[in-house]
Design brief:
The chain is of the alpha+beta class and 418 residues long. Helix content is 51%, strand content 19%. It has a 5-stranded antiparallel beta sheet. β11 and β12 form a beta hairpin. The radius of gyration is 46 Å and the shape is rod-shaped.
Length: 418
Amino acid sequence: MCMAALSVLFACVLLIMGLLYDYFSRLQQEQLRIQTRLVVQGVSAQGRDYFTDLDTGIYRVTWVGAEGTVVYDTGLDAAAMDSHLGREEIREAVQNGYGESVRYSDTLTERFFYVAQRLPDGSVVRLAGRQYTVWVLLLGILQPIILVAALAVVLCLVLASRLTRKIVAPLNGLDLETPGAVYPELQPLIDRIGSEKRREFTANVSHELKTPLQTISGSAELLKDGLVRPEDVAQFSGRIYTEAQRLISLVNDIMALSRLDEGGQDLPWEKTDLYALAEETLLSLKSRAAAAQISLDLRGGYAPLFGVPQLLKGIVFNLCDNAVKYNRPGGSVTVEVVRREGEVVLSVSDTGIGIPEEDRERVFERFYRVDKSRSKEVGGTGLGLSIVKHGVRLHGASIQLDSAVDRGTVVTVRFPNG
């Protein structure tokens, strides 16, 4: 953008200078013609006496006799000058009564306009005007041009920076899971992204379904063929039950995401106490947290909120569930629900392993896991935070994640309560 602006500026300078130079050149030539006519009248009336105490200003006046001899010149000694009949403007004046020509200096830094007119006695009066060439004028104003160009660069950088931020802001905020065309020109790209996300989602779902199904199928086959010792039947049955529950959770999460993707229009909205939901959630996680030696703490109080109870419960559960899963023995999970003016704030903090900075923007993507080995160990479908994000969006809320590796994570959700 800066280069474009500078190019336009340079082109405008050249164009304006060219137009002004041409205009003033024509104006100067016209003034030279007028002055020539005045001098011709004076010489015709007074002869050589006309030049006595004559102030010719910026013009050089030359009076050439009919035979070409210089009679008078305001710039040089006439006696030392050679014949002027060979000069183009004088030759034309002798032949036609009037002549003009333009000649450049040897250094090409100046050009001279000549206007000659024949007198009744056959002699010729010639006036010459001098003008600098356009390149000399350009060099003369080079300093202000550089100053203007520098100011233009600074202005371009400021405006380009602001304009660029304004243009790319919608692109930086683009949700790749549910992309929408921020500009009509991007619709083909958005369609392509949507297609690639659907492909990736299908592949991830297939993978997540395949793993438990293989376990269930293998265990069931061994039981069917009688290859399991009686004392191991309970273990294999338990494995089938665990994987079946995992499948049920996965299917439920997928169905929940599908409803959210469709806008969640059919979900019932009603007044709900977010503090009571948090209390119920922590109660359901109490035994698991105790087994992992993790303490649970609930703070705040009654916080009425108009929303979808099923989604609000899912938001609270998934955040608290992750806080327990990715914590450390002897760690803690603190849930705070407070009602402030115009909003209800839910905060879930833990003393767990934390999230690396490079992963914080992606943890809300479907099936994305920071530590795949630990995720496999603690279980889960990989859709929890994605459900949280969609549920938060449906309620017009905002979510903020602050985390530090080996120090813990704090997730804050602000629900409008107007």
